[in-house]
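Q: Structure tokens for this one, please.
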Amino acid sequence: MMDKLKHKVFSFNTILYWLCYVGYLYIILPASLNKVVQQPLMLENMRLLGFEKNWTIAIGIVETIGVLIVLTGLFKPHFRTLGILFLFPFAIGAFTAHMAHQEYYHFYQSLIMCVLSFVLLCLDKGVSANLKTIKA
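A: Here is the predicted structure, written as tokens:
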């Protein structure tokens, strides 16, 4: 009975992981490409946050590199984790910037990216956190 239950939990975690992975790419891929191809609305929104055109393009290129690392993870799983860790500061930065500028209508996607990053890292079997106290 316990073996069947463990298998169902594993299946649920696997499905949840891949749904989060697809959602993650669904948000970050267009956002990064819109910066690189200089989509006018994205450039204007980034300008309002204090980033000029060159900074916006640079951020877009670095985000696109992160997306490519995450996509490489389809074939080599450790790259998926590396890409998510690489892009996590961008999600946090976007969330912070939108909240600081009181752009509450824009902050949802960056908040979702923060949550998805956390969930993906928690569900990844290759990631573990040691929370034991270090005794000197």
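A few notes: The mean pLDDT is 87. The helical segments are 2-36, 40-48, 53-72, 77-100, 107-123.
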